[in-house]
Design a protein that fits this description.
Layout: E1 6-8, E2 14-16, H1 20-28, E3 41-48, E4 51-57, E5 73-79, E6 94-97, H2 101-138
Antiparallel strand pairs: 1-2, 3-4, 4-5, 5-6
C-alpha cells in the first residue's frame, strides 16, 4: 500500500515515515503533540456554547487505496452534553482531506462557515419550542 505512516516536519507539513518505531516515538512526543505549533491539532474552536470544531493531523493515510493522494487530515464537530444543542445532528459532520496544513485549515474554516447557519436555525427552533412549551404550561 506504500507509505501509510506520516509525521509532520518543522513547518507542520506531512512527510512519509517508513519506520514504525520512529513514527510512534514522534506521535507520542512533544513535537507531535496537539499543543505544538506544528503538531497534530491544526485548530480547535468553540463556535457556539458547547459546539466545537476540531481539525487534526491523523498521522496515518486514511485513503486506504493505492495511487491516490493520502488522506491525512480530519475535521469533526463535537457537541457537549451540557450544550443546549446536545442531540442536534452536528456531531455527525466530518470531513477528511489530503494535502497540506494550509488545505486542512481551509477545510476547518469551511466546516465552521457551513455549521453557523445550522446552529442559527437550531437556536431559532429551540427558542420557538421553548416559547410554545411556556404557552402550554401557562395555557
Amino acid at each position: 500500500m506504500g507509505d501509510c505512516h506520516y509525521k509532520l516536519d518543522d513547518k507542520g507539513e506531512p512527510t512519509p515515515c517508513n519506520d514504525l518505531c520512529e513514527w510512534a516515538e514522534w506521535f507520542g512526543s512533544e513535537a507531535g503533540s496537539a499543543e505544538s505549533k506544528t503538531g497534530r491539532q491544526v485548530k480547535y474552536e468553540e463556535v457556539h456554547k458547547g459546539v466545537h470544531v476540531s481539525t487534526v493531523f491523523l498521522g496515518l493515510d486514511h485513503s486506504f487505496q493505492r495511487g491516490v493522494a493520502p488522506v491525512l487530515w480530519e475535521t469533526m464537530v463535537f457537541v457537549d452534553e451540557s450544550s443546549p444543542l446536545d442531540g442536534a445532528d452536528f456531531d455527525n459532520d466530518q470531513c477528511r482531506c489530503s494535502g497540506s496544513r494550509e488545505q486542512a485549515m481551509a477545510m476547518h474554516q469551511r466546516m465552521v462557515r457551513n455549521l453557523k447557519p445550522k446552529i442559527l436555525l437550531a437556536d431559532l427552533l429551540l427558542a420557538k419550542l421553548n416559547g410554545l412549551e411556556g404557552k402550554v404550561r401557562n395555557g
